[in-house]
């Protein structure tokens, strides 16, 4: 989708500091970081939200969490902990309509975030 910022990042038309990429997902540093480590993990295919994941996308959830686990190890987050966030829909706070998971860590995270 031409108007989707995340599709533009995947296609290389919008610059981003990518930290992981394979045939299913891409991960890059969030430019509006809310923690010392703030990485977005997104599918390479444009899927607006969790609500649109279908049976044909069965590999995707496993790949998200596999990549998140590896990034948590790579960035030294696994031992002390980290937060994974997915916002779904308008009331869920989703502002970019392309599935994405936030991996946040490297500081004590409080709830509610702020």
What is the strand tally? Answer: 5
Largest sheet: 5 strands, antiparallel
Distance between the termini: 32 Å
CATH class: Alpha Beta
Globally, the shape reads globular
Radius of gyration, CA atoms, in whole angstroms? 14 Å
Which percent bin holds the helix content? 10-25%
Major beta sheet, strand line-up: 1-2-3-5-4
The CATH superfamily is identified as HIT-like
Q: Hey, roughly how much beta strand do the residues contain?
A: 15-25%
SS-derived structural category: alpha+beta
CATH architecture: 2-Layer Sandwich
Low-confidence runs of at least 5 consecutive residues: none
What's the total helix number? 2
Total individual domains: 1
Give me the strand/helix succession. Answer: HEEEHEE
Domain HIT: 5-114
GO molecular function: catalytic activity
Protein name: Histidine triad (HIT) family protein
Active site: 100 (tele-amp-histidine intermediate)
What would your notes on this structure say?
InterPro entries: Histidine_triad_CS (IPR019808), Histidine_triad_HIT (IPR001310), HIT-like (IPR011146), HIT-like_sf (IPR036265). The active site is at 100 (tele-amp-histidine intermediate). A motif (Histidine triad motif) lies at residues 98-102. Residues 5-114 form the HIT domain. This is Histidine triad (HIT) family protein. A hairpin with a 3-residue loop joins strand 1 (18-21) and strand 2 (25-29). The relative contact order is 0.22. The mean pLDDT is 93. The protein has helices at 5-11, 59-74; strands at residues 18-21, 25-29, 37-43, 82-85, 101-105. It is of the alpha+beta class and 114 residues long. It has one domain: 2-Layer Sandwich (HIT family, subunit A), CATH 3.30.428.10. Helices cover 20% and strands 22% of the residues. Strands 1-2-3-5-4 form a five-stranded antiparallel sheet, covered by helices on one side. It starts with a helix and ends in a 9-residue tail after the last strand.
């Amino acid at each position: 989708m031409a108007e989707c910022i995340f599709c533009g990042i995947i296609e290389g038309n919008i610059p981003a500091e990518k930290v992981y990429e394979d045939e299913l997902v891409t991960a890059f540093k969030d430019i509006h970081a809310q923690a010392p480590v703030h990485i977005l993990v997104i599918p390479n295919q444009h899927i607006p939200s969790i609500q649109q994941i279908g049976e044909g996308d069965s590999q995707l959830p496993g790949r998200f969490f596999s990549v998140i686990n590896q990034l948590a190890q790579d960035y030294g987050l696994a031992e002390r902990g980290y937060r994974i966030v997915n916002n779904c829909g308008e009331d869920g706070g989703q502002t970019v309509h392309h599935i994405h998971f936030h991996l946040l860590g490297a500081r004590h995270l409080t709830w509610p975030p702020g």
